[in-house]
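About this split. The held-out portion is used to measure sequence recovery: a designer receives only the structure tokens and must propose an amino acid at every position. Recovery is the fraction of positions where the proposal matches the reference. Here is one held-out target exactly as it appears in the evaluation file.
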């Protein structure tokens, strides 16, 4: 049986090797850069001033071409996750290309986003955790719901 001191030295050496490997990995992945671009805004969504301010504060960071990329968006592997989330968000609904959507597509996107906001799925909890300004109060959720209903009514059945 190994002596207790020898076990501790072996364990400490193993931890140093593991931390060294992790540090090496984190340094190596910095070579793999991701695209953090903001294409030109084609045309923003037309909304009343209060709704527009709310959309800009809580939604535009992921759902427009006006993303503000924080300092940690330059550090892999976090940068990969952020770029994926923004890409996914823009694919789901992009307020910077809103005018290009045909009315039926706008209605589908509005219905889906209103449902997700009402259920508390948007903004995602992990986003709201580091972006408290994106958290929506009940009144703000209701404002978005009312605007969505009005906009769907304006666009068609």
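Reference sequence for scoring:
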């Amino acid at each position: 049986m190994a002596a207790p001191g020898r076990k501790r030295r072996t364990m400490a050496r193993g931890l140093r090797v593991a931390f060294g490997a992790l540090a090496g990995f984190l340094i190596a992945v910095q070579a793999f850069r991701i695209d953090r671009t903001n294409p030109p805004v084609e045309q923003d969504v037309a909304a009343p001033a209060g709704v527009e301010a709310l959309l800009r504060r809580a939604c535009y960071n992921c759902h427009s071409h006006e993303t503000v990329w924080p300092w940690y968006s330059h550090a892999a592997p976090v940068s990969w996750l952020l770029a994926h989330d923004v890409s996914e968000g823009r694919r789901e609904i992009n307020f910077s290309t809103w005018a290009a959507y045909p009315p039926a597509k706008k209605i589908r996107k509005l219905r889906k986003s209103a449902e997700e906001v009402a259920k508390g799925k948007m903004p995602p909890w992990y986003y709201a955790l580091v972006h408290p300004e994106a958290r929506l109060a009940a009144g703000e959720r209701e404002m978005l719901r009312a605007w969505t209903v009005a906009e769907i009514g304006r666009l068609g059945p």
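Annotator remark: The chain is about 60% helix and 0% strand.
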